[in-house]
Amino acid sequence: xxxxxxxxxxxxxxxxxxxxxxxxxxxxxxxxxxxxxxxxxxxxxxxxxxxxxxxxxxxxxxxxxxxxxxxxxxxxxxxxxxxxxxxxxxxxxxxxxxxxxxxxxxxxxxxxxxxxxxxxxxxxxxxxxxxxxxxxxxxxxxxxxxxxxxxxxxxxxxxxxxxxxxxxxxxxxxxxxxxxxxxxxxxxxxxxxxxxxxxxxxxxxxxxxxxxxxxxxxxxxxxxxxxxxxxxxxxxxxxxxxxxxxxxxxxxxxxxxxxxxxxxxxxxxxxxxxxxxxxxxxxxxxxxxxxxxxxxxxxxxxxxxxxxxxxxxxxxxxxxxxxxxxxxxxxxxxxxxxxxxxxxxxxxxxxxxxxxxxxxxxxxxxxxxxxxxxxxxxxxxxxxxxxxxxxxxxxxxxxxxxxxxxxxxxxxxxxxxxxxxxxxxxxxxxxxxxxxxxxxxxxxxxxxxxxxxxxxxxxxxxxxxxxxxxx
Length: 471
Prior knowledge:
The chain has helices spanning about 5-10, 20-25, 30-45, 100-115, 120-125, 150-165, 180-195, 230-255, 265-280, 290-305, 315-335, 350-360, 380-385, 425-430, 435-440, 445, 455-460; strands at about 85-95, 175-180, 205, 345-350, 390-400, 405-410, 415, 435. By secondary structure, it is of the alpha/beta class. Strands 1, 2, 3, 4, 5, 6, 7 and 8 form an eight-stranded mixed β-sheet that branches. α7 (about 180-195) links the parallel β2 (about 175-180) and β3 (about 205). α6 crosses α7 and α8 (about 230-255) packs antiparallel against α10 (about 290-305).
């Protein structure tokens, strides 16, 4: 069975170990104390990605190390003083991880083997400074841990837990929820340590398997058997086949005659750049590529995601899957279920966030993104929206005078993300918010969908002629 990159990232084909519950993985005394001691020291040396610059290494698509989203200069960062938040719903992507599955691992390993085979030729040649790392010791070696949360990823989640507690000190919950993929379970655990400290031992760390219901808003694709995950790879391949040969030629012109990189080697070097950063915060490969070449790679990763769970998915399946999250958000903020809970801490994937945003039309490009050309100015940008450890925070708030009735705001990676689809007033535009009523009306696409209805079946049915494609 061939498994696509999208399937591996979203945890669709999980090893049985990935379904283990975190409670069974943790000894909540000795291990917790050791981790707390280590992470306390780690947090003191944590280097925030809150920089003013927006260099190419902060634009590596959904493989970007956590970064604060660019500021929307037309939106106020803080709510008016007379407003108070009364409900918070966090959807957190897992932290930095190793390569997602065999394809990415094979590309990097193939690159390493090509360089090993060329070791002698490289030693006796003149190389530009940014390639001389190939001549040191054994040259470039890779020791990445596929699919698992890295030490950088653990640090990201612990720090985000601390920061969340500082931002929302009066909000608490007894339950945290994640997908069944192990790196997401681990992310939930480290966030809990940062947010609750020793009190995390008393929290219920659950997965979607513990929640009754036919479909999960965290992993709706598990209830969408008809979707063709290989379609996204085909779209992305059309683009990579157009930009990789130019980079391969440029690199081969810098290397000895006896060294001949293939396009797969070049692809592996681009992935090595991203995953070395995810593992150790630096990579010699990142200095090898020009900014426009990294931009081509970023666009490829965006195409994978927009064709997996976004606007390019046939039969609108990405938006249909995202409707589950939107309806859960509306139900909670409308309190239709009668829940008194004020805080929801949940952990998933980049696909969880992107499918939800697509359902709400928050990052749609017109015309749609295409593998025919790179769209420099685009709204669908995973580097900004779903880097590793992305944080989608929804706030429900009320005000004494500034706004009438319940309001809603989205804070995405620490910056207010304007809700343009439902804004009605100048004040809405100023603060990037809208009334809950307007938000509900603007999301009729989602509220009209119920799991298993005709719309869902047309997009996700196992026998969909468009979506069920072998590949």
